[in-house]
């Protein structure tokens, strides 16, 4: 059975899509998407031999070899221009996902939707999308097996029903603080609209982590430690303030 994380990613793929799942590992996502009749074709891309073999085996066992093509290669190298209209990249860091997209921009011209699930560095990925003319149309957050995941869904701004200026519209929080564009990129413009309990859990964990770093900085004798500690304190204050002001 598909994990809730992968199922939620799958649900963001429009019916009839030609999918490219990059870093597909066991190809669980394209296999389930094919079995559920969501996609007409898929490329499952893998750069590493172990996961590539696992994907080949999984696709063969599912009987979906006509629909899913398993290919070995780096990032978007495995697809031809125009071959995919939806790209999913899940389970890697946000900067790696951004680097993969950046190295394959010629393959993105035909893409109508990106469904991305960074394990860390969500803000880096949001900045990349924003700067490259992709607009977030939806963000999801979930907890599974003690980990918190975010799923970012983006469409080309030229085709999307909403613009980046609207999505990242700065707003005043009920407590009076300003949720600036910079902070919206950090927290997620959609996630802050109707924050779910797990969103607060994520940022409380983040604050705990920062408090531990602050603690070790305060005991450090390195010359830059004091300055770093001040920056971190200021950042923690903003996070606390924003969390306190969200509905
Ligand atoms: N996408 C699956 C998921 O979310 O469950 C698998 C995630 S797994 C943690 C990450 C996979 O990405 C690994 O199998 C790894 O080999 C693959 N990978 C890492 N860098 C890649 C790249 N540049 N191109 C293609 N695959 C890559």
Automatic annotation (TrEMBL):
Stretches of the chain forming a coiled coil according to its record: none
Molecular-function annotations in GO: tRNA (adenine(22)-N1)-methyltransferase activity
InterPro entries assigned: SAM-dependent_MTases_sf, TrmK
Name assigned to this protein: tRNA (Adenine-N(1))-methyltransferase
Species this chain originates from: Paenibacillus campinasensis
GO aspect biological process, one term: methylation
UniProt cross-references to Pfam families, sorted A to Z: TrmK
Keywords annotated in UniProt: Methyltransferase, Transferase
């Amino acid at each position: 059975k598909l994990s809730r994380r992968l199922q939620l990613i799958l649900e963001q793929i429009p019916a009839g899509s030609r999918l490219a799942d990059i870093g597909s590992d066991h190809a669980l996502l394209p296999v389930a998407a094919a079995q559920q009749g969501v996609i007409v074709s898929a490329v499952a891309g893998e750069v590493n031999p172990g996961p590539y073999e696992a994907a080949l085996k999984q696709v063969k066992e599912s009987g979906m070899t006509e629909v899913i093509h398993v290919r070995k290669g780096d990032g978007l190298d495995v697809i031809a221009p125009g071959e995919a209209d939806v790209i999913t990249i899940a389970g890697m860091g946000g900067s790696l996902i951004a680097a993969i997209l950046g190295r394959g921009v010629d393959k993105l011209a035909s893409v109508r939707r990106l469904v991305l699930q960074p394990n860390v560095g969500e803000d880096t990925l949001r900045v990349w999308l924003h700067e490259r003319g992709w607009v977030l149309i939806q963000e999801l957050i979930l907890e599974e097996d003690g980990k918190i995941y975010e799923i970012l869904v983006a469409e080309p701004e030229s085709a999307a029903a909403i613009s980046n200026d609207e999505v990242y519209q700065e707003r005043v929080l009920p407590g009076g603080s300003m949720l600036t564009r910079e902070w919206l990129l950090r927290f997620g413009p959609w996630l802050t609209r109707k924050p779910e309990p797990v969103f607060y859990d994520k940022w409380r964990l983040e604050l705990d982590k920062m408090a531990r770093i602050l603690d070790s900085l305060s005991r450090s004798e390195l010359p830059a430690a004091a300055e770093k500690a001040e920056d971190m304190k200021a950042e923690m204050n903003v996070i606390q303030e924003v969390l306190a002001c969200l509905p």
